[in-house]
Design a protein that fits this description.
Low-confidence stretches: 1-19
Number of strands: 31
Number of helices: 2
Shape: elongated
Radius of gyration: 34 Å
């Protein structure tokens, strides 16, 4: 009996020693706050309170850490931005409470920070990011409200971030960009409008690539809210594409022809946009400029609307025929894996001739420091081009994005310029 009594007394004493009350070290902010920034190390609780426009900020900790907490610089304010500084003095995950009206133009969670909120009202203008979640962050909002069409509900979620909204309400449209394995979870959707969810995945040697777009719409039908979801296949973003290559074979059989050439340098530059057909198939189109520079074997001049051979001007005479086309490419892609980092593609490029020129070296006696003079020519090249290409595309070679083999399906030159049926093939490096 004495042993049992002693044991109970020991347990009671232990509880009295370790049971400590929580204390709050707080400060009041009596000014408007438009933006909130949260740095890591804390477990931040956002508590909605409409009594006034001010905010209460407090560290919630145990009694034996109170003295240390009093000396912690928790936050600062600049340009109506409240910044919760990184926790480097108290235990990781110490609770910080922020109590106030919770009407922010922007909430930014820096990398590895955590926060939760009971009720937040969006107040950012349209097309402005309202929620920004850095890498490895967590934000849980019980109720997020958009009061009118004038305000934005935009969110950017970066690598492995998690945004959970239990209830979304109000009037207007929202957009969420999800990068590199980040996650957006939405429970009850009472928003009269649409949510545009765009997902981007990480590529090797390439920052992010658009994967898919979802559109979630909610509207009132017969007094009830009806939500629909569909995948948006078209990606409106424009992408810059470039390439350069060498073509061989587009030269006459007659060795005395003024069109006899050693090679053709081809350059492509343009914009395209992408359409996802399925997990393995895709389609793109756009607008491309194509420049071709032909190095002629003979010294020539342009007279009476034709090229004439004039060999004998100098040992270092150089002549080039240049042309420019502008047209529309149509490309069909087949992706080899789920990550869409490698693919084969087949393209057709239909283009219209913009102009053609004959360039001649300014000094035929010099092999270095050569300047060029150029004159416009006419009736040499076919005014239309229809190019077919087969490509292997990859995201694993840095700035090189693939190789392309191509040929022109139409005659290179205008009818009457040459009687030869000239066909060429080219090899292009895609950038």
């Amino acid at each position: 009996m004495k042993r049992i009594t002693l044991l109970l007394a020991t347990l009671l004493a232990t509880q009295m020693v370790f049971a400590q009350e929580e204390v709050a070290i707080e400060q009041n902010i009596n000014q408007r706050i438009n933006k909130l920034e949260i740095n890591p190390g804390w477990d931040v609780h956002l508590i909605h309170h409409e009594a006034d426009s001010g905010y209460r900020v407090a560290i919630i900790t145990e009694e034996d850490l109170a003295a240390r907490a009093y000396n912690v610089q928790l936050c600062n304010i600049k340009d109506q931005t409240l910044t919760i500084l990184e926790n480097i003095q108290l235990p990781k995950g110490t609770v910080v409470e922020i109590e106030g009206p919770m009407t922010f133009e922007g909430i930014h969670l820096m990398d590895k920070s955590t926060a939760e909120a009971d009720y937040i009202v969006a107040s950012a203008q349209k097309e402005t990011t309202n929620l920004y979640l850095g890498k490895d962050t967590r934000l849980h909002i019980q109720h997020y409200h958009i009061p009118s069409l004038e305000y934005s509900a935009g969110a950017d979620l970066w690598d492995r971030a998690q945004l959970t909204i239990d209830t979304l309400s109000g009037v207007g449209n929202a957009w969420v960009n999800v990068y590199g394995g980040a996650e957006f979870r939405n429970g009850t959707n009472n928003l009269l409008g649409k949510i545009k969810l765009q997902e981007y995945e990480v590529m090797d040697n390439w920052p992010y690539q658009h994967k898919e777009t979802k559109v979630i719409k909610t509207k009132e039908v017969d007094g009830e809210l009806v939500t629909t979801e569909h995948r948006k296949m078209w990606n409106e973003a424009l992408h810059v594409e470039a390439g350069f290559g060498i073509r061989q074979g587009d030269t006459p059989k007659d060795p005395n022809s003024p069109l006899l050439q050693s090679s053709t340098l081809s350059i492509r530059l343009g914009l395209n946009t992408y359409y996802k057909l399925s997990n393995h198939w895709g389609f793109s189109t756009g607008l491309f400029w194509n420049h071709n520079k032909k190095s002629l074997c003979h010294q020539v001049k342009y007279e009476n609307n034709e090229l004439v051979v004039i060999d004998g001007q100098g040992d270092f005479q150089r002549d080039r025929l240049n042309n420019d086309y502008l047209g529309i490419p149509v490309t069909l892609y087949y992706y080899l894996g789920k990550q869409h980092t490698e693919s084969f593609s087949l393209d057709l490029y239909g283009a219209r001739l913009l102009g053609e020129r004959l360039s001649t070296s300014a000094d035929p006696t010099r092999s270095w420091g050569i300047g060029w003079t150029a004159i416009s020519v006419d009736n040499i090249f076919n005014p239309w081009k229809l190019e077919a290409g087969l490509s292997f595309n990859t995201q694993h070679l840095g700035f090189i994005h693939g190789i392309r083999v191509f040929t022109n399906l139409l005659p290179e030159y205008k009818p009457g310029v040459t009687t030869d049926k000239i066909r060429s093939i080219g090899l292009e490096i895609k950038l």
